[in-house]
Structures are given as C-alpha cells and as structure tokens.
UniProtKB/TrEMBL annotation:
Belongs to the Gfo/Idh/MocA family. Pfam families: GFO_IDH_MocA (PF01408), GFO_IDH_MocA_C3 (PF22725). Residues 54-177 form the Gfo/Idh/MocA-like oxidoreductase N-terminal domain. It comes from the Bacteria. GO terms for molecular function: inositol 2-dehydrogenase (NAD+) activity; nucleotide binding. It is an enzyme of class 1 (oxidoreductase). Keywords: Oxidoreductase. Its EC number is 1.1.1.18. This is Myo-inositol 2-dehydrogenase. Residues 186-307 form the GFO/IDH/MocA-like oxidoreductase domain. The keyword Phosphoprotein does not apply. The keyword Cytoplasm does not apply. The gene is iolG.
Amino acid sequence: MQRQSREWTRRGLLYGVGGGFLIGQQLVQAAAAQQPVPKQKAENAPFPPERRLGWAVVGLGKFALNQILPSFAECKRSKLVALVSGTPDKARQVASQYGVEPGNIYDYQNFDAIQSNPAIDVVYVIVPNALHPEFTVRAARAGKHVMCEKPMAPTPAECERMIAECRRANRKLMIAYRAQYDPFNRTAIEMVRKGELGKLKLIVADHGRILDPADPADRWRMDKKLAGGGSLVDIGIYSLNATRYLTGEEPVAVSAMVYSPVGDPRFQQVEETVSFLLRFPSGTQATCTSSYGCAEVKRYRVFGDKAFLDLDPATDYERHRLVVGDKQGEQEKQIPNQNQFALEIDHLSECIAEEREPHTPGAEGLRDVRIMQAIYEAAASGQTIRL
Ligand code: NAD
C-alpha cells in the first residue's frame, strides 16, 4: 500500500496541474478548477477582538442556533456583534447568551438600519431559501459584505441579481458551502486532483434524511414558495457540489428521475427523491441521489483506475471518515477534525481584509442552481439535458 502510494504521488504530478487535469493530451479546465483551494490562514494565531470583523446573523433558526452561533467561539478573525430576528424575546435571550449588545438587535423590518452601524462588517443570511435574495440585496445596499446559506436562491435569475447587487455595492458575496472548508473534504479534493486514485472514472454521492413535519425547521421545506424545491435543493446539493469540487470540472450533460410517494402530505409541493447522472468533460461520470425518505446518509465514493476513496460521512457537522482502498486493502486517513463553520466564517473575514475573492463566491452558488434546474428539467422531460 505504501509503495503504491508513492507511485500515485509521482503519477499525481501528471494529473494535478494548478487545479486543471491533464487527461491524455487534453487540459480540461473548468471555472471551479481554476480556483486554488484556500489556504488555512485561520490556523494561525487568533486576532484580538478589535482586529476581528463584526458579523450579524439574520435568522435565529435551528441551524443558526445550533451550529453557527456557537462556532464564533472557535473563530480567529470574526466576532458575532449583531442579531436579526422576527422574535424579540428569542433575540434578547440569544443576545445575552452570546454577549451581543441589546442595541445591536434588529428585526426584519428595521434591518436596513444596519447601514449606520459600523460594528457590522458582514451579514450572514440563514433564513428559508426563498428569502436569501431579499436579505442579501438589503445587506449589500446597507454596505455590508454577505455570507448566504445554500441553496443560494430558488432561480438562476435571483442568483444573478444577488451577484449584481453585491458587485454594484462593491461588497463580497460568499455562499456557505461549508464542506469546501472542511479538512476531510479538502484532503479528498487534494488526493483526487493529485491523481492519487489514478485516473478519475466515477463518483457516487448520496444524501438522505427523513423530512419531519413535526420539526418547525422542516415545515417551510414542504412549501415550494419558501424552499424553492425539495430534497434536491436542500441536501442533494451536497452530492452535486461534491462532484464539482472533487473533479474541478463542470458537468456537460445531466439526466434524472424524480419520485414522490403519492398521497404523502409532505410531498404535495416538493419532491421526496431525486436520482441524477452527470457527465464531465474528462469523461468522469457521477451517479447522485438525494432523498427526504431515507434515514441519515451523507456520503460519497470516488473511483479512480488505481484506487477508491470513501468519505462517509462526508458532509456531517462533526463526524467524518475517510478511507482509501485498492486491491491490497483499505486504509483510514487520520485527519485532525476542525470546526468547518468557523473555518468558512474566517475565510470570508480573511478575504474581506485582504481584498480577495472568496473560494465559494456567488458564481459558485449560481452554478449549482443552474444545474439543479437542469436536473428538474431532465426528470420532467425524460431527456438528457446538455449544459
Ligand atoms: P429554520 O426554520 O430553523 O430557520 C429559519 C429561520 O428563518 C427561523 O428563525 C425563522 O423564524 C426565520 N424566518 C424568517 N422569515 C421566515 C418565513 N417567512 N418563514 C419561515 N421562517 C422564517 O431553518 P434552518 O434549518 O435553520 O435553515 C435556514 C437556512 O439555513 C436554509 O437556507 C437552509 O438551507 C440553511 N441550512 C444550511 C445548513 C448547512 O449545513 N449549511 C444546514 C441547515 C440549514
């Protein structure tokens, strides 16, 4: 296994060239491949509070309360300074828990007053999907940089408007693709791009969970106007995004099937299950699934002509397991776990301070939204859609 690893590394020099791939004589370069994986500057010493950028979080729902707010404690360049919520009691209680000044609590109506609050540099939008465009545009117009949750917006046109408004305001826009900042996924990307699996042939990526109508966070997910789609836009997006960041290519063809159980009240407006196939310019193919009907699955397997790589779970909040295998056997990679939310938050703060484009800008969110639209179109028409 060890000898072979060295051979893969040498071979890797042939494959992983500045984010592009040499396949035969052909250099396939895609927009995503051109971006270098961001350096983990956040591993450096934490900044003192006065040098950190100030963040406002919009929406105090399940994800914000359980993952994002606690992660500010592990940030090194970012600090939580403001909250935006439609529920004043909750906002006050959360503010006191995190040391946010009462004067820095806003609601959805007076949100635009953040314009005159110099403590706020960045706004993190964590509301239902269809509201991302509104709060992104309002934040940019108030002169603030924006981190927006995935999926970026229900339609490509809305994504384009978000990008245009942030550009007009000269503010940065980053989409919160946390997996692209997680060390396990970053290791997988590096191994694939260095050619350590040999020539990349296939990716299989699956995401599933049970949609629970008793959970308030899942209620708007059943409403197409607020969610923009079903399991695909919520969790299938992780399968899709993984195929793009692993290959560094953009798909050129997609086919798909959608299924929802007849009569299930959860799936009157949005779909339960989607299977989709993607073909990339290099010939790599991806088989992906997303379902609101399967118990916890969040994994991918990458097959090269020399070895395979398993990341399972791949997109969990805390747990990851990376295994590489070949004819000789399997080996688990030991990678120190880090808080992916803190890393992604600090990445945007770093990009703002250093006037760099974030690794996952608005254009990255737009690409996924366009492909997801093609996936729905392919399923509805029964045709393979060329992209
Ligand atoms: P949630 O329902 O728990 O939170 C949504 C928040 O928005 C709530 O505080 C709610 O009060 C507020 N809100 C404002 N206007 C609303 C309206 N008109 N209808 C309903 N709620 C409204 O949902 P969540 O699971 O926290 O998801 C919020 C966003 O975060 C979504 O875009 C979701 O895709 C994203 N998310 C991302 C991850 C990730 O791992 N990156 C995980 C979960 C959720």
